[in-house]
Amino acid sequence: MPHALIVGGSGVIGRAIALRLAAAGWQVRVTGRSRLPAELHTAGVRFVAADRADLRRELAAGADLLVDCVCYTADHARALVELAAEAGSTVLLSSKAVYVDAAGNHSNSDIEPRFDGPIPESAATMSPSNIDYNSRAGYGASKVAAEQVSLDSGHTITVLRPSRVHGVGNRRPREWVFVKRILDRRRSVLLRRRGSGIVHTTAAANLAALVETVAHNPGTRILNIADPDTPSALEISRTVARHLEHDWTEVLLDDQPLGRTPWDAAHPVILDTSAAMALGYQPVGDYATTVAAQLDWLMSAARSGDASAILPADDDPYFRQFFDYPAEDEFLRR
Ligand SMILES: NC(=O)c1ccc[n+]([C@@H]2O[C@H](COP(=O)([O-])OP(=O)(O)OC[C@H]3O[C@@H](n4cnc5c(N)ncnc54)[C@H](OP(=O)(O)O)[C@@H]3O)[C@@H](O)[C@H]2O)c1
Question: What does pTM read for this prediction?
Fold first, then answer.
C-alpha cells in the first residue's frame, strides 16, 4: 500500500488530496496544529499534530509521496527539502500569484495585471524575496523563493501553481459572496464590469486528481492547475443561484464601484493547464460540477446553527467589501 504524508493537510487543498489518495488505496497521514476533519477520520486518514517547524526527517521516512500545503518561504522550503530527502517524491503547493505581466504587475498589485492570454508555466514571475509572506508584496515573491530552493535541491519535487481554489473546508470560500446574498434573501445581484471578469477557478478535487497523476509520474517541474473551463463572475453567480434554486435580478454595472466580486478582474487571469493534461491528468469535472460540494457544505454549515466555526464572520475584512447592502439599495431606488 503506497504511503503519503501531507503537511498542512486539514485545509481545503490537503483535505481533497487526502480523500482522493485514501479512496485510491493509499495510506495517508496529515499534519496540522489543531485536529483532523471528521470526513478524513472516516476515510481512514491518520493525523499527526505538529507545527511545521517541529517536523522531523523521520516523519517522512518511507513516504512514497510528500505534499507540503504550508510552504510559504525559502526557509519553509529548506525544511521541506530535508523531509524530501526521505520521501519518494514531493509536491509543493505554490500559487498563480507568482506570475507578473509585461509591466511587472501581479495578482496582488495595486494595478491589475494584464496577461496576453492563458499563462504558461514558463511565464515571467516576481523576483524571489523574503519580505513578509502575509503581505501583498510578499506572498508571490516568497512563493518564488520557496519554489527556487525546492527545484534547486536536486530532489524530485513538483511545484503546483493553483489559481482561486474552491472546495469543502475552504477557509476563504469566495462563493460565499453569492451564498450569503441568497441566505439574506436578496432579490438582486449587482455585478461590476457587467460580470465579465475572469480569475481562473481551481477545484481542490481537480488539484487532487493532478497530485495523484504526479504521484505516479514523479518529476522535477512546475505545473499550473485550474478547472477545465473559465467561468466569468456572471457565470459563477448563475451557477450558485441555479444550485441553490434561487431567482434574482441580475444588475450588470459598467462603471460603478458597486457589485464587487472576487472574480471581477479588469483583464482575464487564466492558467494554461496543457502541461498537466500532457502528463495524463484527467479533471474530475468543470467548475459547475465541482463547486457543488462546497456550496452544499456552506449551506449545511449555515443551517446547522453552529456556523461560526467555519463561515466567514460578518466583520471579516475580506468579505465585508462585497456586502454593502445599504449602498446597493440606494442605487436600486434611484
Ligand atoms: N486556497 C487558495 O485559493 C489557494 C490558491 C493558490 C495557492 N494556494 C496555496 O495552497 C496551499 C494550501 O492552501 P489551503 O487553502 O489548503 O490552506 P488552508 O486551508 O489554510 O490549510 C492550511 C492547512 O495547514 C495547517 N497549518 C497552517 N499553519 C500550519 C503550521 N504552522 N504548521 C502545521 N500546519 C499548519 C492548517 O491546519 P491547522 O490550523 O490545524 O494547523 C491547515 O490544515 C498554501 O500554500 C497556499 O498558498 C491556495
Answer: 0.97
